[in-house]
């Protein structure tokens, strides 16, 4: 009877554990990350009897956590990818809304500015039309400034999000390390039994960690787990952690780097929310600022250059409409010293924009590599490609011209071998874009030169209105000789035909006594019936004058044409027309893009990024849902299944109790018989 009681008791206790486990599953059915548990039973060691071995009941072998490591790893991987794509879409969509909108982007402001030029050109003497040009120029400057501030605001938000993510990663790592310790203790105290609920808690933390950063794991000492991020940097080793740090960048002040110990691990993080934030900063926001800056620089240079070629209402050559892109403050703002540089260094470096056609949207790194403090290497910051090597002159100021459309100027002070500078030729240009002209009368809407035919001409020849190519010398430091005297051409010229096929160009400073130029330009060939250019367009040519004219038709011998300053040209709109044409003039990327097409291409590029990112996000979300479903089908709690199991266990429990009852009755019968 004792054996029968023992068998019944073993069933009672064992199925009670099963009922408790099933109840635990039901109670946690809605708990995120919970893995259902299952009791495994085994037969107790049978007892040897007269007829052989007689069973002695059942016992609990273990309580197993239903989990599959492959599915767990797949779920983490899918979570990492979805978190990256989702975060990326959120930020880039904001940027697209900013730059593509008519009310906040550049397109509308540029169009309004050029439209005001076109309207003013219809009546160049009108002060109202001129005032509209200045108003639209101010609006355009405000738009450039606002876009810069909005993008840098996004960059600041990204840095803050990086810092928050790093803090949360460290909290999660600490929680995982603590659970590692608890799991090890619990497993030891339970003789190796798995602490299932603690394992679930740890897996929840790992799942949350995978939303923030790419995660790789390995097991040690049974159920303890090691966590690695990025390219294998250890975050958790058993009960110990190696916390991340978000610190101000030494090489790119204004940004934050992610470090473990003294190692910068930023470049190794490409998944999860943190990977998306780093990608947004490096591949979207920084290039966006550089591109807007490139457009601001090119627009300023070309518009100022065209303004300078014209004359204002006072008959003066035009003053710059927008702030000089190469003023000292702007040149110095393009250089950011590395915070690790020699503290005693007092070097002052500027960057001068030389050729907008060659100017890129890249950042560069200038390193003084030695053996002397003048020796340098200039590389692209994006890929480390060497752009230029050499040495600055021993005496300052010293300048080095690059093939990237800018020169680097060591203005004063000294550097030390090992010092490094970040060169950002276009980064702040949109912020520094400003209107300099404040009087509407100073808008130069007319051309500075004009041509006219003498009234006594007998032939059928005609001279063009002329076009100013430039008023400054090649290095831009001074006016060309022809424009050196205010409100006049030095000298005014006379074109005199000595025959229908030849002409002389004379100095007409004294209209009563024209004289030869120095050197003389006499007996020049003329082709009747064709447009004949009078002057070269290459500034290197000694005969270059900074302007061009052409004579066509069939002039007769003795016919004369005058080339002179456009005195009293208040009704001339030729320079306004030339300014309007700037919107489609290809000035960027070696003559590929205009101001309009450069900005349109930029907006289209952002839109393409958004479109592709949304496709990738939707695909990664579908994969995540599929992987989550696969995990839940295995590890999740099915209430119908648990209810059926509960009924089964209840019946087994009642049957075991019945066995005990039968055993007691038999035992009582036996006692009564003996007594």
Task: Report on the architecture of this protein.
- It is a single chain.
- The chain has 675 residues and is an alpha+beta fold.
- The radius of gyration is 41 Å and the shape is elongated.
- The two termini are 17 Å apart.
- The chain contains eleven helices and 31 strands.
Task: Give a quick rundown of the structure.
By secondary structure, this protein is an alpha+beta fold. The protein is built from 11 helices and 31 strands. Helix 2 (69-100) runs parallel beside helix 6.
Overall mean pLDDT stands at 90
Tell me the major beta sheet: 5 strands, antiparallel
Roughly what percent helix?
40-55%
Tally of alpha and pi helices: 11
* Distance between the first and last residues' Cα: 17 Å
Sequence stretches where pLDDT stays below 50 over 5 or more residues: none
* Helix-strand makeup class: alpha+beta
Cα-based radius of gyration, to the nearest Å: 41 Å
Overall geometry: elongated
Q: How many strands appear in the DSSP assignment?
A: 31
* Fraction in beta strands: 15-25%
Strand order of the largest sheet: 13-20-15-16-17
Summarize the SSE layout with pairings.
Blueprint: H1 2-27, E1 37-43, E2 47-49, E3 52-54, E4 58-65, H2 69-100, H3 106-122, H4 127-189, H5 196-212, E5 215-220, E6 224-229, E7 233-237, E8 240-241, E9 244-248, E10 256-260, E11 263-264, H6 272-309, E12 310-311, H7 328-333, E13 335-337, E14 348-353, E15 364-367, E16 375-380, E17 386-391, E18 398-401, E19 406-412, E20 420-423, H8 429-432, E21 446-447, E22 449-453, E23 460-463, E24 467-468, E25 493-499, E26 502-507, E27 515-525, E28 532-533, E29 547-548, E30 550-554, E31 560-565, H9 574-581, H10 595-635, H11 639-674
Antiparallel strand pairs: 1-4, 2-3, 5-6, 6-7, 7-8, 9-10, 10-11, 12-21, 13-20, 14-19, 15-16, 15-20, 16-17, 18-19, 22-31, 23-30, 24-29, 25-26, 25-31, 26-27, 28-30
Helix pairs in contact: 1-11, 2-4, 2-5, 2-6, 2-10, 3-4, 3-9, 4-5, 4-6, 6-10
């Amino acid at each position: 009877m004792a054996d029968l009681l023992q068998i019944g008791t073993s069933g009672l206790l064992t199925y009670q554990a099963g009922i408790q486990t099933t109840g635990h599953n039901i109670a946690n059915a809605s708990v995120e990350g919970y893995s259902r548990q299952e009791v495994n039973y085994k037969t107790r060691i049978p007892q040897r009897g007269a007829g052989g071995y007689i069973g002695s009941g059942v016992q609990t072998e273990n309580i197993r956590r239903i989990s599959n490591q492959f599915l767990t790893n797949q779920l983490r991987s899918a979570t990492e990818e979805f978190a990256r794509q989702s975060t990326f879409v959120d930020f880039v969509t904001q940027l697209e809304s900013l730059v593509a909108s008519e009310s906040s982007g550049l397109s509308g402001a540029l169009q309004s500015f050029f439209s005001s030029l076109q309207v003013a050109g219809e009546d160049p003497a009108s002060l109202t039309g001129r005032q509209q040009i200045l108003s639209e120029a101010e609006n355009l400057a405000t738009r450039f400034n606002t876009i810069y501030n909005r993008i840098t605001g996004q960059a600041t938000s990204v840095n803050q999000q990086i810092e928050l993510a790093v803090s949360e990663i460290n909290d999660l790592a600490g929680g995982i390390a603590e659970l590692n310790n608890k799991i090890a203790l619990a497993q030891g105290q339970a003789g190796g039994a798995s602490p299932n609920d603690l394992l679930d808690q740890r897996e929840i933390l790992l799942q949350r960690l995978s939303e923030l950063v790419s995660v790789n794991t390995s097991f040690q000492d049974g159920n303890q787990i090691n966590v690695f991020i990025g390219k294998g940097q250890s975050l958790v080793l058993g009960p110990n952690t190696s916390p991340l740090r978000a610190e101000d960048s030494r090489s790119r002040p204004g940004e934050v780097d992610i470090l473990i110990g003294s190692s910068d691990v930023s470049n190794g993080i490409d998944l999860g929310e943190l990977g998306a934030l780093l990608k947004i900063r490096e591949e979207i926001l920084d290039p966006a600022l550089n591109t807007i800056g490139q457009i601001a620089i090119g627009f300023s240079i070309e518009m100022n250059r065209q303004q300078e070629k014209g004359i204002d209402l006072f008959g003066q050559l035009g003053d710059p409409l927008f702030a000089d892109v190469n003023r000292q403050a702007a040149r110095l703002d393009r250089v950011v010293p590395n915070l690790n540089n020699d503290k005693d260094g007092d070097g002052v470096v500027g960057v001068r924009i030389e050729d907008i056609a060659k100017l890129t949207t890249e950042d560069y790194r200038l390193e003084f590599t030695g053996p002397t403090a003048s020796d340098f290497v200039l590389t692209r910051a994006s890929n480390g490609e060497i752009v230029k090597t050499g040495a600055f002159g021993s005496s300052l100021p010293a300048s080095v011209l690059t093939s990237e459309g800018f020169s680097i100027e060591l203005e004063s002070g000294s550097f030390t071998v090992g010092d490094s500078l970040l060169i950002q030729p276009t980064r702040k240009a949109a912020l520094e874009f400003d209107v300099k002209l404040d009087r509407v009368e100073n808008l130069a809407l007319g051309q500075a030169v004009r041509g006219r035919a003498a009234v006594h001409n007998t032939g059928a020849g005609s001279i063009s209105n002329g076009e100013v190519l430039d008023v400054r010398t090649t290095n831009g430091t001074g006016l060309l000789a022809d424009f050196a005297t205010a409100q006049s051409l030095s000298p005014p010229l006379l074109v005199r035909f000595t025959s229908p096929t030849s002409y002389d160009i004379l100095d007409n400073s004294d209209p009563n006594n024209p004289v030869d130029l120095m050197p003389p330009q006499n007996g020049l060939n003329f082709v009747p019936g064709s447009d004949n250019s009078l002057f070269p367009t290459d500034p290197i040519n000694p005969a270059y004058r900074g302007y061009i004219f052409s004579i066509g038709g069939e002039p007769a011998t003795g016919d004369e044409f005058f080339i002179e300053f456009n005195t009293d040209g208040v009704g001339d709109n030729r320079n306004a027309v030339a300014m309007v044409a700037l919107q489609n003039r290809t000035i960027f990327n070696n003559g590929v893009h205009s101001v309009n097409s450069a900005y349109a291409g930029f907006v289209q590029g952002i839109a393409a990024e958004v479109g592709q990112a949304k496709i990738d996000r939707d695909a990664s979300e579908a994969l995540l849902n599929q992987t989550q479903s696969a995990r839940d089908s295995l590890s999740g709690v099915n209430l119908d299944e648990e209810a059926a199991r509960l009924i089964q266990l209840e019946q087994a429990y009642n049957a075991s109790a019945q066995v005990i009852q039968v055993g007691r009755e038999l035992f009582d019968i036996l006692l009564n018989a003996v007594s």
